[in-house]
Predict the 3D structure of the following.
Amino acid sequence: MSERVKVFAPASIANMGCGFDVMGFTLDEEGDILEMRRSEGDGISIVNETEIPLPEDIEKNVVTPVIRKFLDIIDKKAQIDVRILRKIYPGSGIGSSSASSSAAAYGMNALFGYPLSDEELVECAMEGENLASGGYHADNAAPALMGGIVLIRGYEPLDIIKLPVPGNFYCSVIHPEIVVSTKQAREILPDKVPLHDAIRQWGNVGGLVAGLYSGDIALVGRAMRDFVAEPCRKQFIPGFDELRCKLVDAGALAMNIAGSGPSVFALADRYSVAAKAGKIMKEHFGSRSIGYDVYVVKVSNNGAKILEEE
């Protein structure tokens, strides 16, 4: 067992269009870094050393329920002191809450000698997701912990499947300076989905999985259409349909909302196309006087990892 770890968990994008709450993938390089210390006692302290505003009340920090769930599973008590060293901006749509939740779960596992499986760690991280959004979902937490592209086949019990990541899979993501809380984005979703839309959604999920296994990138692009969440959520993103047309015309495979938004992502099979998509995204939001951050990265097979351990 370790007494101190520094742990990284990456940013992620949930849903992949048609896979609402059941699919997600990991982004390279971006993510959260936590330092965690274990000592004798029974308590939690959290210190935010970033410039990102976070709740001062630890009961409102997503790390807290993750730690408690982990200790409950292994039936132990400890004093856990956390320093947040790097943080994705909350509400960005690239898995802010799941990066911290997954880093906390992975770090706890290292502090206690790796007693839990990946699935059990995802269950711990889902406690943080529930605090952030009012629901237990793993489409960000699972890829953040395990890396790559994941499918959550079921939640009762949790059944996670890692899917192949094409070697030529690039992602352009723009985070416009618009705040859309996960709770707000979930509250506007319909309670019922018309059968016609449900059938189209099922077909797309099947096509997306088939495309990933066969390496058929064109099929992946055709399948990444969402008939459930996107029609409701795109109202939060100025010029959404116009932007999609521009990106597809430029060669992007698909464009979708990243998680609950407001970030938008486009997938491409070449870096040059992804870079062009990023430029188009900048122009789209810049012309509307909306600030932004843009990332052009490869879809990553890497999940949470220990940076330092003692």
Notes: The domain at 4-164+301-309 is CATH 3.30.230.10 (Ribosomal Protein S5; domain 2). The chain has two domains: 4-164+301-309, 170-298. The chain has a mean pLDDT of 93. Residues 33 and 247 are 32 Å apart (CA to CA).
